Amino acid sequence: MTPSWDDLRVFLAVARQGSLSGAGTALKLDPATAGRRIARLEEALGAPLFLKSPQGYALTGAGERLMPHAEEAEQAVTVAQDAVRGQGDRLSGTVRIGAPDGCANFLLPQVLAPIVDAHPGLEVQVVALPRVFNLNRREADMAIGVSAPTAGRLTVQKVVDYQLVLAAAKTYLAKADRIARQEDLRGHRLVGYIPEMIFDKELDYLGDLGVERPRMASNSVAVQYHMVRQGAGLAVVHDFALVGDSAMQRVLPEAFALKRSFYLIRHADDARVRRLSQFSDLLVEGMRRQMAKVREGLTDAVPSEDAGSTETFR
């Protein structure tokens, strides 16, 4: 019996999610149906593909050998669908973006709204999580990162620079001791990441202020921002989050600013998918345009150079 694409699709979902329930959620199937599809595929191939354990489903040797061929079939189906949908300039279908929550909360909404307006058939999903996304497991079609990965079959494109700056609510600053230099921060509450939950070295920035542990902390930069906005203390925040927020004020603008960059990360094989490539072009263009507005809106922002080169890591 020749394996069907439907069964291979379930195989890939179970391999990536590590469970029948996770695969069922991803494919909108009930776990029992996913289990029957896997059993049918194993019968067709004459070999067990998964080992079940308390930790979930793990690939057997046969499953590991099948994985690259199933991914090739998936890519062929995606390219075929893209060819059928690709008539005209309008984008359609679903695109899922993984992004750190600072970018997802304070930058992507302004960038994505006009893209969706221009393409009514397009559905965009933003997964905002304070961690690195695994594109090899297809957790997202593309991801925005704060550092460039150096391993895996990925294409990495630097999108734009931004700044991390020190800020506090005006209400907090009105009643707090004056902050004239960095040494004055010692008497103030600092809000930041939970140290044990920092997932990228680019986010470990409180050391630059001489602070080992923040007085108030969260694994979400959006939560940190709203803590500070309510007068909890000071925090290092994204410069683009401050635009239009009259309740917040930069602190020590001449003495403290950290330059960081956003990178667009894609699976290398997706370069052939016209829909995803078109969307990524619109996303990069929109992020750069929005950051240009940010620099205009923040009089003390320092302009930075953007590099549009794309590298492929294998």
Automatic annotation (TrEMBL):
Keyword DNA-binding annotated: yes
Molecular function in Gene Ontology: DNA-binding transcription factor activity; sequence-specific DNA binding
PROSITE patterns cross-referenced by the UniProt entry: HTH_LYSR
Record keywords, A-Z: DNA-binding, Transcription, Transcription regulation
Alphabetical list of InterPro entries matching this protein: LysR-type_TF_proteobact-type, LysR_HTH_N, LysR_subst-bd, WH-like_DNA-bd_sf, WH_DNA-bd_sf
Signal peptide: none
Annotated ranges, domain HTH lysR-type: 3-60
GO biological process: DNA-templated transcription
Pfam families cross-referenced by the UniProt entry: HTH_1, LysR_substrate
Family label: Belongs to the LysR transcriptional regulatory family.
Designated name of the protein: DNA-binding transcriptional LysR family regulator
Organism: Aliiruegeria haliotis
Taxon lineage: Bacteria, Pseudomonadati, Pseudomonadota, Alphaproteobacteria, Rhodobacterales
